[in-house]
Amino acid sequence: MKRKKKNGYALVYDLVIISIGIIVAIILSKVGIIDSAVYLLKDYAIIASFITGIFFTSAFTLAPASIALVNISEHSTIHSVALWGALGAMCGDLILFFFIRDRFYADIVNMIKPSKVKHILHSFHFGFLKWLSPVIGALIIASPVPDEFGIVLLGMSKVRVSLLMPITFIMNALGIYLLIGFANLIS
Asked: What is the C-alpha separation between 66 and 49, in angstroms, rounded?
């Protein structure tokens, strides 16, 4: 009982941190700090795109990174920002894959009854989720939803790192390209 309560707090803690990250991104954007940083790095768009791409993957830094990528694209081509941002995001996803996925996985497993966990894990290894979970994980990585959820799905389906790298690169490039395209469309 004590263990489930502790893991429930960990999940709530993670959600609070995500909310704080979104609020900080809004404040940084309104104050103009992100614009100033991007302006200082406008001559170094490749480096700025790569570094911002690393932060594009985490729930905690997704919002400010999205704003920064859109701002970088005002001084560089959308293709360059998407390429270098996706390379950075791929590196960020690998960091998430190796260090964070076990924590989210443990939170989810400990929130569910043991019999349900066995059923879910069995589905990921032998059932229809064996092929569906990597597809959903890849779509989550391409979407504006934080990559942690997609990484957990890919990790649960036992995707190898050699396959994870091109998946995350392609899906993040697509996600960044669509983000910038949408921002340019509405502005």
From this structure: 11
